[in-house]
Recover the amino acids of this structure.
């Protein structure tokens, strides 16, 4: 090597070194993401309810700056994407699900600049941001509706209008018996237009007319607006209500065996004409096509269908005709209402029902709670919080965490006077508690200072749960073992390939025990999750009746905080034919299966 080549070589090596350092730093800062795997197959999605997350400009209501300020929290707990419940301009008749401008931010949450800052901050830390998309209706205060009432072109048919069936004395009679989800007729009379308009929810939420191509274009324009801003996807709200039959002069039949006598109650009718109409899929396909023009975006849809998996699975589409990336899996919510219904068998059937019915090549997901359902710890038992997080985070598919589930937040009792949810308010002081969704929407519990550190204002929009003094993020960060530390361990663990691509088997299922193994041919370590669904202490024999070949022992990786025994301290090796578990406990073992 002469001097010149030697210098060139040195320069070249320096260059390689610098590039390597940059790559290492970049991956350390932003994490490595395999571009061929969509983000939502690897990351945990966390639902933020903006009113209740963090109040930066203290007025008792959460805001965008509050969410921006909490970005590091998500890095710490291992969440990769947040989904924001609606933040759009809204009169707040249904807390943001009644939208007056789909491309603007409501002042109570902040400004568009605040949103841009949020998006930049989250993207800067390698986190994704998913928006709520609420297509089924707008607010009656939306410009479109105001113009539609006046029959102003082109807005005349943006909504669903109908002449009255008849007049009873001078009272107009609605064209049919259709009911609002929130109770009462789904038709409201417009004195100005002398016609009824249709609303599946509140009268302040007129349904958009998706049979009108202009409305479809408007909605595509709204999606494009947010995609161009750089958001990472959408959660589409109440999709099954998008269409109703075109001819409104048909009544819906009374539901069989519903046990409901109240003729104004939504459950009284069988909704054959107003939900899941075939046209819905055509619209969904157009949204899919638009979203696919961008890279690595998510579209998840909300459809409540109970155990009717056939209807639900249609929202996935199939390999040649993809629609949503997934419809939410509510089997853990709709299939398991209370502790009595929770057994090893019922958990297994909830899991396999989804996995076995999913179209081939599709991706599962697990939802334990959301802003419309009681908190999972209150529904099923606070002793189960860790075990249920183990399931949702370690089963195959995307885990969706409702804010506060990582610390085991519970429902908050709310008096009639403090009730805000329109669904609760409509049922009056006697029955509101059955219907109100306020208990699961109370402020996030950050620490033990006043209002749980959620705000420095003098009051909050909903009361803070009284348990905040002990149940809060700060206390759980300070403790060696807490729901939060369990959650963190699980989000770390699920980064292993075996949790993304591995298969699943159920070694032992009994009345009181649910268990599953995640395994792959190419790994020497499998993972076993065991849950004691009963409230009693048990000694579990995982070899008894085992349909899957387990080794003699397993090493504890994570355990519920309710278990304080010496034998199951993480790192301990435990004989799998006698695993002691306290009521509601979950345990995660690593299994060495070499040779
Ligand atoms: C929504 O808000 C934006 C920004 O203020 C405005 O430009 C737009 O015209 C509004 N759209 C409607 C339909 O009112
Ligand atoms: C007309 O309205 C009255 C008063 O609301 C009601 O009692 C009656 O049943 C109605 N008649 C018909 C035919 O709907
Ligand atoms: C609702 O109607 C469908 C279609 O006619 C029928 O198959 C179903 O059994 C009905 N369900 C109830 C609860 O009435
Ligand atoms: C996929 O769905 C489309 C539309 O529903 C249907 O026409 C097609 O036959 C399906 N393809 C497969 C492979 O099932
Ligand atoms: C499609 C849609 O907008 N669904 C929503 C309809 O409105 C009600 C009331 O605001 C919401 O609760 C649904 O989620």
């Amino acid at each position: 090597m002469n001097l010149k080549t030697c210098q060139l070589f040195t320069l070249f090596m320096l260059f390689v070194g610098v590039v390597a350092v940059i790559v290492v730093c970049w991956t350390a800062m932003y994490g490595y993401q395999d571009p061929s795997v969509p983000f939502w197959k690897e990351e945990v999605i966390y639902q933020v309810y903006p009113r209740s997350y963090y109040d930066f400009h203290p007025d008792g209501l959460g805001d965008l700056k509050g969410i921006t300020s909490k970005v590091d929290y998500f890095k710490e707990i291992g969440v990769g994407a947040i989904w924001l419940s609606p933040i759009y301009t809204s009169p707040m008749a249904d807390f943001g699900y009644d939208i007056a401008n789909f491309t603007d931010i409501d002042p109570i949450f902040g400004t568009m600049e605040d949103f841009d800052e949020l998006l930049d901050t989250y993207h800067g830390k390698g986190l994704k941001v998913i928006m709520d998309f609420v297509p089924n209706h707008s607010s009656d205060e939306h410009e479109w509706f105001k113009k539609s009432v006046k029959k102003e072109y082109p807005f005349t048919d943006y909504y669903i209008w109908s002449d009255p069936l008849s007049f009873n004395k001078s009272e107009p009679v609605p064209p049919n018996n259709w009911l609002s989800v929130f109770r009462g007729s789904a038709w409201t009379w417009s004195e100005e237009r002398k016609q009824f308009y249709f609303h599946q929810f509140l009268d302040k939420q007129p349904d958009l007319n998706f049979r009108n191509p202009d409305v479809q274009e408007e909605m595509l324009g709204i999606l494009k607006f947010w995609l161009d801003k750089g958001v990472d996807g959408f959660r589409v709200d109440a999709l099954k209500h998008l269409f109703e039959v075109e001819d409104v002069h048909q009544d819906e039949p009374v539901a069989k065996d519903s046990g409901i006598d109240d003729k104004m109650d939504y459950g009284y009718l069988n909704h054959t004409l107003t939900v899941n109409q075939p046209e819905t899929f055509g619209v969904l396909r157009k949204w899919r096509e638009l979203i696919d023009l961008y890279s690595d975006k998510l579209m998840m849809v909300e459809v409540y269908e109970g155990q009717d998996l056939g209807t639900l699975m249609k929202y996935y589409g199939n390999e040649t005709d993809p629609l949503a990336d997934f419809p939410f899996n509510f089997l853990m919510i709709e299939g398991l209402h209370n502790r009595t219904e929770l057994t090893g068998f019922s958990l297994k059937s909830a899991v396999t029902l989804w996995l076995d019915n999913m179209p081939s090549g599709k991706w599962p997901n697990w939802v334990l709670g959301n802003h419309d359902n009681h908190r999972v710890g209150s529904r099923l038992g606070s002793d189960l919080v860790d075990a249920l997080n183990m399931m949702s985070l370690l089963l195959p598919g995307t885990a969706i965490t409702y804010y506060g589930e990582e610390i085991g937040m519970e429902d908050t009792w709310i008096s009639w006077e403090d009730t805000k949810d329109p669904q609760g308010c409509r049922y009056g002081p006697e029955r509101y508690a059955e219907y109100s969704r306020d208990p699961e929407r109370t402020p996030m519990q950050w620490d033990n200072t006043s209002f749980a550190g959620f705000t420095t204002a003098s009051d909050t929009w909903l009361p803070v749960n009284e348990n905040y003094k002990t149940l809060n993020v700060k206390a759980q960060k300070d403790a060696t073992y807490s729901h939060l530390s369990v959650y963190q361990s699980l989000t770390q663990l699920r980064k292993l390939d075996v949790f993304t691509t591995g298969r699943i088997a159920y070694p032992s299922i009994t009345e009181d025990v649910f268990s599953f193994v995640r395994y792959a041919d190419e790994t020497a370590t499998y993972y076993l999750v065991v849950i004691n669904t009963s409230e009693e202490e048990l000694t579990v024999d995982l070899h008894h009746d085992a349909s899957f070949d387990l080794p003699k022992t397993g090493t504890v990786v994570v355990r519920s905080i309710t278990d304080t025994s010496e034998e199951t301290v993480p790192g301990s090796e435990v004989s799998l034919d006698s695993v002691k578990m306290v009521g509601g406990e979950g345990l995660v073992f690593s299994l060495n299966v070499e040779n």
About this structure: The mean pLDDT is 92.
